[in-house]
Amino acid sequence: MQDNQTELETTAAANDTSCSCPSARELAVTRFQQARAFAAAKVNQIRKAATEQASTICDYAQEKGEVIRDKAKKFHEAGEEYVKEKPTQSVLIAMGVGLLIGLLIRRR
Where would I find the DUF883 domain in this sequence (predicted)? Predict the structure, then answer.
């Protein structure tokens, strides 16, 4: 008799669980959709922040590139002017630098 009552209780508990499964499933689907929406919002937020950072970095690099180009242009012009004023000294300096580079390369 005791065994039959236990079986009935187990069967009733199983029936109760199967009855609550659709609502548990719906709850799980709802939670999943909420998590998905939250993740999508965070991804968009991160994408926006990354785009802004990339834009800032790009602008900074362009500004620095212009400064470097201007300095290189001035250095080049000063070099040309020096060579025009002192051609012999410029050739001797160039030969000396070439000799040093040749010696350094030969040692390796």
Answer: 80-108
76 with 103, same domain: the answer is yes
Write out the residue range of the structural domain in which residue 46 sits: 22-62
Place of tokens 């999943």: 32
Rg of the chain, C-alpha, whole Å: 39
Q: pLDDT (tens digit, 9 = 90+) per residue, 71-98?
A: 999 999 999 999 999 999 999 999 999 9
The predicted model scores a pTM of 0.48
Same domain? For 71 and 57 the reply is no
Residues 6+ apart with CB under 8 A from 83: 90
**Number of residues assigned to the chain:** 108
CA distances from 84 to 3, 71, 73 (A): 113, 20, 17
